[in-house]
Amino acid sequence: GAMRSRGEVDATLQTAKVNPAELLPVVHCLSFGPQAGAGECCLLQLEPGLCAELEAGRSLVIRGEKDEQAVLCSKDKTYDMKIADTSNMLLFIPGCKTPEQLNADQASCNIIHSQIAGFGNNYWELRRCRPKLKKLRKLLMEDPYEGPDSRKDQTLTFSKYTTEDLLNLIQASEEEILHQLQVIDACKIEGYWRILDFDYEMKLLNHVTQLIDSESWSLSKVPLRTCLEELGSLEPIEMIEHILLSYGRKYIDDAGEVYFEMHEDKICRAIAHMLLQNAVKFNLLEFQEVWQQSVPEGMTTRLDQLKGLALVDKSSRPETIFLLKVEDLPEDNQERFNSLFGIREKWTEVDITPYIQDLCAEKQTVGALLTKYARSSMQNGVKVYNSRRPIS
């Protein structure tokens, strides 16, 4: 339309019964530009930290395959993206001045004609979420590494994933993905991330523990160089070093020699896993006996080393223990609880905690999760939790 004059503006204010004295003297006259359309622009609401990332020239990435809900990732955090509708139309006006800027700029003319470049009725809202990392293990488990002599590896058909591939496939930030690769003891072989086949991993661990035993080394001071010299003829030295890194902490002594302090709990846990994977259920007392005999000398087995790996059934006579791995359970909260209540109707907080701990969002407690997804009751003076919904 035609440009408005000050007189027309004042007349409009009078019709609207607005007192001009209560307003800033400057008036914005808006008109729609030729290209203004809905859906041309998207609005994204950022928290200050993410805003600073962009201003510093870093990029944010949207990740997800076609069947997944999109997430947005910074270098080290992951956010769920949800569309938030607004009741007011949002107008995009380039070079728009805020009241603060106008107040500071007294000399500005009192009518500003602005063109609306676009408009929207919604914006994307970001909510910090847990990175969706379950898929990482699943992809790498398609073809676990069975060692240098494996027939399977010599065929070219197995699934191979580089860091780049994983960044495209996993809905998590780069730092979260690299951290998780460490957690699941993945190793890079010829540029591809692999998980060791469990039997092969146990074979390597066994070589190392037998050597420690025969050399009578202290578990807190295992020398890398001698390990590589002694075991290098049996397995690739990268693998020997990888197993030491997976089951120990690397350090350098005053003379510059590299040593490993072995993680007792992790070694005991792996050996329990090996023993339990061959039986559906195991008599608890017999298992504890065999387990203690199977670990390297000087190590002590304790049931709390098995959190999130195995579950003791105290209600059966005699008591039994069986394999239940947290990484095999669903990633979605409700599905996880459905699955756990399918395995056991009533849980104590102590028993269920290792199986839901990883679901806790930032600053969320296990107690809060249980309140939401389970109902509690008392059984023989002990608080137990069961499903909120009937299990089908």
From TrEMBL:
Q: Which InterPro entries has this protein been placed in?
A: Dcc1 (IPR019128)
Is-annotated flag, keyword Isomerase? no
What is the organism of origin for this protein? Pelecanoides urinatrix (Common diving petrel)
> Record keywords: Oxidoreductase included?
no
In its UniProt entry, what is this protein called? Sister chromatid cohesion protein DCC1
Q: Which Pfam families match?
A: Dcc1 (PF09724)
Gene Ontology biological process:
DNA replication; maintenance of mitotic sister chromatid cohesion
Keywords for this entry?
A: DNA replication
Per the record, the similarity remark reads:
Belongs to the DCC1 family.
Extract one GO cellular component term from the record: chromosome, centromeric region
